[in-house]
Amino acid sequence: MAKLILTGSVGIGGKNESKDIEAVQKALNQCIKLLAPLPKLKEDGDLGKNPASSKTVAAIKAFQKKVVGMANPDGLISVDKGTHRKLNETAVPANLDLLTFPGTSFTYVKTTKTVEECIATLPAELRTDFKIVIINVIKEMHKLGFALGVLQNARAGYRTFQDQIIVRQKDPKASGAGPGESFHHYGLAVDLGVLQWIDNKGKAHSDFWLGAMDEMAGYKGFSSKIWAKRDSYCVNKAFRLRKERIHLQGVPATTSGRVWLAKCMSEAGKADSYEYKKGGINKKYKCKVKKDASWVEIGTAKELWMGIVKNVTAEQKKKIIKHFKASENIAKTINIQ
Amino acid sequence: MKKLTILFFCFMAVINVSYGEDKVAIGEANKKVKAIDDARDDLYQLEIKQHVEVSEGVPPSVVFFYKPEREELVLVEFSAGHEIFSVVYKYYFENKKIIKYSKEILNRPDNPPKRAIIYGSDGSVLWKNTINEPVISVKNILEIYSLNMRLIQDASKY
Ligand SMILES: [Zn+2]
To answer: B84: CA distance to ligand 1 center in Å?
Structure first.
């Protein structure tokens, strides 16, 4: 709506200029749904002989209680104070269908994206069981009015080993996973962000990480509620990582992608086994080849990707690189308990 | 090109009028910040870093940069990697007073602008393009630095 401009206060003990009263009545009517079961107010610029018992003051009090969150509503709107500001944030043209986020006073409008559009962003490589959980998360969040999905062209869905290299080349500080070490290779991870949300003025935001929402005064603290809601639909079948907001994976957060890569390589190797020792800084893999029963350190995933293999013969090296490369396909279906 | 130059000068004039003395102070602050950035390689560092198995992102690490003499803290930088992008926070100090705070999000596809707050010598805000306060308060940053320095010193006593 146009900004609610007041020349003086309105309500109990207010200046109560007629045109200010009328402006307040109009603004309250624009968010009357939030004040149910109160009926729409007459926009007549009048509080009657006894303002305290007027329907307009009753609506101001209801607004203060339900939307502003005041424990003891005083029924007075002072210029540029809390109730006035909140009313400005909340009031929208009547043709907008306003929603309130469960358990909060945040208001917004339902996304214009369909649930099918959201689901269509999921990568084809996602494993069936994990996909079912993620689709359910998308559906539930869509019921609440938010379009969640996977950002295209941002490597937020399935990643090849090469993709992981590119991610790290673009920003070495961004990802700790080398090629083969991310659950995005396994069809078991998606970065599920917000494709679109619409604020209570009707403005649509493409705001995947909710960074824009975080900077809007009227929505302070709202993004964490949205993420928490998203996570509540994961029901111990999709897991978030402690320090990543948008990433969800089909295995618990402490599962090591590196142990999984070693398993994939062992699967490819058949007679040769690979292992990854947890902990340490260097993230190196070890290999036990058939002829030689002792473990040898062969290097990091990135080194293997570059064709560098340490402590082995030229013949063994060839085999190990082959096993590493074969892991990319094995990763798509392997099951590790 | 000519048009652009004229516009630019008009713009400068507007800034001059509206900021006045603050503009001088902001210029001073930026000079100090640049001097700290330039001296970065000569500064000593105290680093706090996690080594954990989690592989998708990069756990946050904190680096305190200080002058070798008197161990005066001049820059605190922490960064965290979020799979395809990273966030870098910086605090610049002089004599235990904050000069500048910045938050930069690198390589994120929606390319958010760099955020910064520049402070005056009395701690007041001279300029900012963000509504946010520093992610960790300046007071806490200074306390954490001195506690960690004390820890390091105590550990080397015996
Ligand atoms: Zn991810």
So the answer is: 8
